[in-house]
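Protocol step 4 of 6: structure prediction from sequence.
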Amino acid sequence: MTQTRTAVAVPPELALVCTPAQIASRVRAMARQLSRTFAGREPLVVGILKGAFIFVADLVRLMDIPVRVSFVQAASYGRATSSTGRVQLSHGPDQEFRDQDVILVDTVLDTGLTLDTVIGRLRQAGPRSLTVCVLVKKEGRTQREVPVDQVGFVRPQGFLVGYGTDWAERYRQLDGLYVLKEEKAQAP
């Protein structure tokens, strides 16, 4: 079944920073690298909900090795554009991680608090290996250094939305990545 995608109007409070074509190209390259790294193995890809759901779907469809998929839900932003400093894990992983090759996937690495918390939780489970993959690493706001094995893009400051990421549950459906203009960064 082929579906035709209708373009979504981009609100004026957003400015494009990564086009859908740029994202697709980087995700394809990341999938190829992960496929080479894990050749002959069947890694467990763990996405951080909600933001990484589109990235995970695109990434695993482009990998040419067998994979399993799981998700954890973590949040530290709520309806704000800056982290609360507290990471809430509201949906834990439903897979056993001991002695597994785990690929942890998130869309945006900002302060590092969420990834650091999830990495700590996963390491406690005793995986054989843990590879961290993020689509965008933002500069200048890191509060915790997080080891990242694959980065799609490095971006300067700005609150990113689109391609699964949101602000107050808005803008996830946009194909590209956009920065929310500062004057609009107030709770809806």
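Step 5 (inspection) to follow. The helical segments are 20-37, 53-62, 113-124.
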